[in-house]
């Protein structure tokens, strides 16, 4: 484990403008993902130690928001007061995973998962942060998950912080806007290491600090929806596990062949990825960010730089899309694009009326399989091929209203998505990229933050009334893929009406 012990620091720059991003629409598909592969990618295209898994996060699946000593989190309060998702949906019950985790682990086992990425609810194990006691029932809950995963031979891959934290930390000192949050994060991480580190060998400190910053502190769509100064985090390793950070990693391609758009695409990558990953690897923010932000960008002391340098063992890549980048320093752009936080780059999914890839339910998520190879190559080159994990990659259909369950579970598009993205990843790996694992987002449909339950990324459909998990076609595909059964995979794509299996949905045909 490379992480340095004790207090301090990765200071994450929070720069706020009151504006929102605008994505242009278009009517013509790129079409790349609809091409069925003659020779679909196979499990055996990846090394044997490579981990294939699926991911979730606490607030999105657990529910039981006030059970067994858990306190209110920032998301509980945000959604209760503001009303998130459609019709004010929230994560109070989510997928009821708190009560169904044994079923869910059985489901993972039947699927053949080699690893499961999940996050710890901070307010469940430390209801008052460092101002109160550890909640033994919270610890017990995660112990049971971890023990049962290990029993089934599934590697627990734990995100310490994925969006939610005790509301008390917000109310006491403004959470990430105050350096005191470092002490709370250290306490939280320590508690996790001490309680679970004997069995957990893969840790992610924070999920997508770059996105959290933008959504919570710039655009105000996520809690705490206000603006302020830098926030920091600290980790303290103990038991020889590996620790990484998961960054939200879009791929950016130049909109035109102009030199300025090429530079804009490069800048977008630096402002999006370098912002999160340069500090824990090189000990400082990218020079390009300093050029644009000047003295507004906090400076690290030599001690802080030293502490941060090489402080992560691996890079977590959450990748969903590629978009075009357009320069906004020389040409006029939409008002919302003229943001220093984005490096004065406008982004769009459209070029000359043609979309970069098929649209999905998310405004700037397009299906562009080559984007995964490109982003892995970029990160490989920028960080000297440090070990990488694809910690999230997934698809949600653009149709979210009035969809029948039969249509939802017949998710051929999701299969094509994962097949083509995995083929793209395999290509990057054949060219030397040191990627160690791949996690589908998500194991099951869940609460998609501000968008609610109708945006579905899961391999399993979750009935909102009974909480039955119903495997989609993609779950069966993943199962066959993991068994390296290419004939079954090909046959599946011919199936148009999958059988719906209720109640015991997790028991797959073998
Ligand atoms: C990522 C988040 C994850 C989920 C997916 C769709 O940015 O990390 O929780 O919401 O998007």
Structural class based on helices, strands and sheet pairing: alpha/beta
Strand content: 15-25%
Indicate the overall shape. globular
How many β-strand runs?
A: 19
Strand count, sense and barrel status of the largest sheet are: 8 strands, parallel, barrel
Helix content: 25-40%
Poorly predicted spans: 1-35, 227-233, 496-510
Compute the average pLDDT. Answer: 87
Bound molecules: beta-D-fucopyranose
Rg, nearest Å: 22 Å
Strand order of the largest sheet: 2-3-4-5-7-9-16-17
Supply the number of helical segments.
16
Distance between the termini: 39 Å
Oligomer: single chain
Short description:
It contains 16 helices and 19 strands. It is an alpha/beta fold and 510 residues long. The strands form 6 sheets. An 8-stranded parallel barrel has the order 2-3-4-5-7-9-16-17, surrounded by 5 helices. Strands 8-10-11 form a 3-stranded mixed sheet.
Q: What does it look like?
A:
The chain has 510 residues and is an alpha/beta fold. The chain is 34% helix and 16% strand. The chain contains 16 helices and 19 strands. The chain has helices spanning 58-61, 74-82, 97-111, 122-125, 136-151, 167-173, 180-196, 209-218, 259-282, 287-293, 302-308, 370-382, 405-409, 412-430, 473-482, 486-492; strands at 10-12, 51-55, 115-119, 155-161, 202-207, 231-233, 242-248, 251-254, 314-318, 322-327, 345-348, 350-351, 354-355, 358-359, 366-367, 388-393, 435-441, 460-462, 469-471. The strands form six sheets. An eight-stranded parallel beta barrel has the order 2-3-4-5-7-9-16-17, surrounded by five helices. A three-stranded mixed beta sheet has the order 8-10-11. A hairpin with a 6-residue loop joins strand 14 and strand 15 (366-367). The chain is globular, with a radius of gyration of 22 Å. The two termini are 39 Å apart. Mean pLDDT is 87; it is low at 1-35, 227-233 and 496-510. Bound molecules: beta-D-fucopyranose. Beta-D-fucopyranose binds at residues 57, 60, 207-208, 211, 248, 318, 392, 441, 448-449, 457.
């Amino acid at each position: 484990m490379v992480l340095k012990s004790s207090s301090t620091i990765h200071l994450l720059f929070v720069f706020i403008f009151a504006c929102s991003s605008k994505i242009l629409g278009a009517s013509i598909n790129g079409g790349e993902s609809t091409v069925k592969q003659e020779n679909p990618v196979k499990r055996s295209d990846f090394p044997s130690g490579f981990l294939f898994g699926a991911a979730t996060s606490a607030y999105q699946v657990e529910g039981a928001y006030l059970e067994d000593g858990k306190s209110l989190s920032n998301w509980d309060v945000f959604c209760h007061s503001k009303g998130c998702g459609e019709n004010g949906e929230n994560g109070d019950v989510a997928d009821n995973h708190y009560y169904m985790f044994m079923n869910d682990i059985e489901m993972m086992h039947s699927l053949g998962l080699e690893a499961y990425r999940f996050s710890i609810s901070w307010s469940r194990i430390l209801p008052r942060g460092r101002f109160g006691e550890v909640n033994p029932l919270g610890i017990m809950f995660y112990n049971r998950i971890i023990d049962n995963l290990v029993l089934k031979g599934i590697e627990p891959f734990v995100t310490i912080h994925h969006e939610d934290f005790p509301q008390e930390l917000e109310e006491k000192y403004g959470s990430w806007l105050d350096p005191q949050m470092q002490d709370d994060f250290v306490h939280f991480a320590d508690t996790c290491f001490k309680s679970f580190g004997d069995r957990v060998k893969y840790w992610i400190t924070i999920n997508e600090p770059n996105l959290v910053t933008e959504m919570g502190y710039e655009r105000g769509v996520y809690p705490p929806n206000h603006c302020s100064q830098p926030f920091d985090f600290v980790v303290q390793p103990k038991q020889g596990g590996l620790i990484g950070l998961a960054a939200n990693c879009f791929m950016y391609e130049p909109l035109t062949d102009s030199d300025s758009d090429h530079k804009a695409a490069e800048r977008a990558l630096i402002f999006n990825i370098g912002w999160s990953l340069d500090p824990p690897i090189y000990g400082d923010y990218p020079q390009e960010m300093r050029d644009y932000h000047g003295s507004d960008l906090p400076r690290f002391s030599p001690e802080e730089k030293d502490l941060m340098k090489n402080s992560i063992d691996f890079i977590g890549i959450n990748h969903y899309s590629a978009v075009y980048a357009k320069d906004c320093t020389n040409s006029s752009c939409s008002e919302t694009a003229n943001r220093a936080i984005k490096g004065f780059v406008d982004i769009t999914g459209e070029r000359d009326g043609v979309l970069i890839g098929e649209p999905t339910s998310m405004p700037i998520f397009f299906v562009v399989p080559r984007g995964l190879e490109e982003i892995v190559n970029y990160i490989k080159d920028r960080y000297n091929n440090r070990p990488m994990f694809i910690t999230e990659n997934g698809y949600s259909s653009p149709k979210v209203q009035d969809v029948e369950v039969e249509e939802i579970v017949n998710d051929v598009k999701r299969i094509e998505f994962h097949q083509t993205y995995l083929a793209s990843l395999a290509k990057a790996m054949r060219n030397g990229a040191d990627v160690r694992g791949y996690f589908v987002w998500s194991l099951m449909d869940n609460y998609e933050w501000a968008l609610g339950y109708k945006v579905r990324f899961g391999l399993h459909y979750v009935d909102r009334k009974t909480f039955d998990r119903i495997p989609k076609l993609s779950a069966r595909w993943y199962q066959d893929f993991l068994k390296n059964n290419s004939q079954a995979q090909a046959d599946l794509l011919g199936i148009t009406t999958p059988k719906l299996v209720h109640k015991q949905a997790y028991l797959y045909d073998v």
